[in-house]
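Why show two proteins at once? Because comparison is the fastest way to build intuition. When a single record is shown, students tend to memorize it. When two are placed side by side, the eye starts asking what differs. So, the first record is below.
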Amino acid sequence: MKRLLRFGVATLATLLVGAMLLSIPACNSSDEEQQEQEHPGVPILKCDTEFLSLDSREQLFTLQLTIENPTPGAELSWRCNDDWISAEGLQLPTLQFHIAANPGDERSTVVRLIYPGAPILPIEITQGAQGEVVGPTIRVAKSSYSLSAAEEDISIGYTILNPVEGERLEAESSAAWVHIYAIDQTELSMLIEANESDQERSATLTLRYTGAHAVEIVLKQAAKDAPAPPAEPEFKNFSTNNITTTSATLSCRFDYAGSEAITETGFCYRGPSGSEQEVASTPTTGTKSVTLSNLTAETLYEWYFYAVIGEELYTSTTQSFQTSAESKPVEGKVYRTGWPELCVEDDTNSDYYYAHHITDLKMKGNKARNYTVCYSAKHHCPVWVAAPRHSAYEGSTNRTNAYAKDPQIPSNIQYNSKSTGGGCNKGHMLGSAERTASTTTNKQVFYYTNIAPQYSSGFNTGGGGWNTLEDWMDDQVCADTTYLVIGTYFEKYTDGYGETASPKKISFGDRDDVSCPTMFYIAALRTKKGNTGKSVINCSASELKCAAFVRTHTNNHKGQKVTAREMISIADLEKLTGHKFFVNVPNAPKQSFSASEWGL
């Protein structure tokens, strides 16, 4: 028997993205129905979608096709006038396309599907601008289920692609005889009342998830005394673990309560441009797993589980994972390769001085680092401060207010006192409240090298623009540790809110030659889940999130909540500032970000 193994409609993102981000509406045209009625013998070409909305990254997608009233010997073909789309394979019922990464603005095209005697079927494709990310997608294995008339307890599996932390699936039924009683991360469970009527009945389940298109599932229940529909298999509890540069372990739960023989089961997988490969498993129900090897580093793979039951092929929803990146040489000199927050230190720039502060706080038997600072002799101001954020650094120590010169930085380039000026107060880069585990730890954040002039009336004050951003960032601190680089900028700058600041010198800290920053930023890196127990250095790109949050130094941001308008990618921040961020983390997804992953 020839097995028609196939992937469902899906996207394959670029090498630094670990989740598929494609939202596909159903295709059901009344015009097509009318056409079928008027011309019953004419071939009709149908596709599971006529509109695709994709993100900017390189990807594959698969169209599922059907041809009604086919012409013997006729072949399907396609045409597109844009070279950023190419075909990977055409074998009914699937057509696979490769889409190149979009380096510019949003773009659109039309793929025309051609079958002799049938009307040409256009598929409109829109690809977002560079850096744009499509939000979450709900994926289910089937859009309809046939049930017996008896009362039964059933579960339906689902997958959320590109999930948002803290959000969960919601579901409701159109019928009172369907009782949804549990929704976990992979399935929803419900009790179906017995049908005492002589008529078949149906209900619609509507699944909703923040940022995703709603999905509807139709439940059809047989009439009383009607023969029970054939049992179908269930696939659920998908997971991918032990991901390395060349291997990964796939797992799936397979259940089947019918009487037909299970003759084959296994896993199918493929990379962005490779052929589909399968690994057979024992043809029994239960939890199935397989470890794949000889994979390519830093590559996104798709996989699904299949079962052949009574000569019928069944497949699960498509899952994805990304292999880890190979170890890369650090992009420049760093103080410690094991500190994820560090930036490159530029020895060729005579303006920069660096200090690495170690505290008396013990972690795993050793004294813990507090923060690293890059300080400018030209601006007499910190350039960036890199620090880990974790609850271990917070305790009951009171604020010390121990303002002093940094003993590791030349004294003559620092402030001469804690006096203020230029409408500014003393703005901590790494805050005092973030370092209260010991007196020494808190004293170090009062070094002048950790302090920049910040406007006192609307920026570094209650409800001020900077304080609002700092408070929001507090909620991003996780059990896995959040790594921050808090920085300044001194050239003319306009932020996402249209606020602009220009360079100027002010009197501050008993000096009259201090540069007033035009912009402040926080570059943040952490695991998406926040509680993996893994170092970010050992995580794949799909397990991580990083982004920069940027605000012009102005009093006009007072009361401004944090929004996606102040987010830029770490790669764009590197271009703007000239600094290299998170160089010790090989898989840090610096080229892109998802606002929804940060709750924005």
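Second record. Ask yourself what differs from the first in the token line.
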Amino acid sequence: MVKTILGQVKEFKKDSLVTPACMVLEVIMEMLIPLLMAAIIDNGVEKGDMAYIYKTGAVMMALALFGLLAGMLGAKYGASAATGLAKNLRAAMFNNIQSFSFANIDKFSTAGLVTRLTTDVTNIQNAYQMILRMCVRAPISMVTAMAMAFFINAKLASIYLIAVICLGFCLFLIMGKAMKYFKQIFPKYDDLNASVQENVSAIRVVKAYVREDYENDKFTKASGNIFQMFTKAENILTWNAPLMQVAVYGCILAISWLGAKMVVTDALTTGQLMSLMTYCMNILMSLMMLSMIFVMVTMSMASAERIAEVINETSSLSNPAQPVTEVADGSIVFEHVDFSYRAESEEPVLKDINLEIHAGETIGIIGGTGSAKSSLVNLISRLYDVTAGTVSVGGVDVRKYDMEALRNQVSVVLQKNVLFSGTILDNLRWGDKNATKEDCIRVCKMACAHEFIEQFPDQYETYIEQGGSNVSGGQKQRLCIARALLKKPKILILDDSTSAVDTATDSKIRQAFATEIPDTTKLIIAQRVSSVQNADKVVVMDNGRVVDFGTHEELLEKSEIYRDVYESQTGGGGDFDQQGGGR
């Protein structure tokens, strides 16, 4: 974990080394000043030597200024190193997330990843800056002050040593008890972020069902859990301050009482007593700094584990040693394919799938909810790997392809259509970043999107709000289809992506596909028989199996499930899930 975090320091190594060096210089300057102060009192004030006072005072002023400069440089470079580490940690996590397969993404919640990229990284940033500055400064200051105190008078200095040992033991116990609560806090942040994210993204549904009170209660509960955990942890940490105060004032009283006796008996000078009092404050303030560091490091350890978990996560999918980079055509073959989302699953999602699809064919896929239609097409672009059997595209096992080369030839319009903040042209160019406006207009005409775009005041420069909230479901679907077509793919997969458009528009889109992209293999997942009945062949799925495969006419004769669905829909009686899917 520590190696993973420190591995992201990278170009900020110099700043990370300069910062503690500056802290050491600052401590040295601070430790010399009490000795010179003692010399001024003993050799200047008591003897009335003003020249000595001015000379020594000037040296003290120079040391103070040099220490101030060192402290300022330490703060500057420490801030640069800490913020740089935070920047690299976010980049490392985000870049690794981009390489995740769907199986990896399923391990982490969206809210959890957001918390790790924000709250957890901020904790590491604060802790790293503390470690570079205070964690270097405090121990060196404490040890140096202790050594100087023993140099002046070992008997009185032993009071510091006893106080430090007792206080250090107490702080260790306090930190150990607080740590278990800090480890539980950050998963609670995930729950809080999930509540906020879900509420904001579905605010229209919340208001439509008048569920504001329910959502407020859910948020209050998630926020209250964090409050309770922090309260428990802070109640333990509150012992830090009183223990520190007892140690500080106890040492001051002990040194004042014993030191005064030693001054009277000439065993100690007044200047040395003043120096010992200064070193006493240095030692105990350093110990207080260390207690603050322990608190911050304790909190950041839980964050570091969560960040390292994301950075060290290895994608379950990887390119072969010598990947194939060219996809010959859009032919697809499934041979005895089984698939499970989890290795430990007892029942596979897909069972013994055997299909052969020729390049340029239009294939309809129909089945009830949960029949694994989407799981089937996800294997084509290798979003998941098969559990058993092989999936081939263009005559080559998909596991032998370079994944980027394969996915560039497979356009997928998913069930959940996503548009990003930006203009319509910006969203379309996700399919081809170099596409001209004419290219975008051409594919929009194929997807029946051009007509409604022309009605917007800004037409193709119309700004799309986050999530496409300012366009309808059918408009969003058509824009996503147009975006997929810009890739000029060899395989086009429409995963129930015309469900929000009317039947006439659906028909126009299918006709455009037939005439404009005849060489592209088209897979159309649909609930409506009318969307697939003109396909070259139709796959009927039920419970993770291909139960029938053939043309519309063939299926009407041989497939009872397909015939029931067709009759129920053409007769106005319902959909697949109501009549055919349960058989």
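One difference worth noting in the second protein: DSSP finds 20 helices and twelve strands in the chain.
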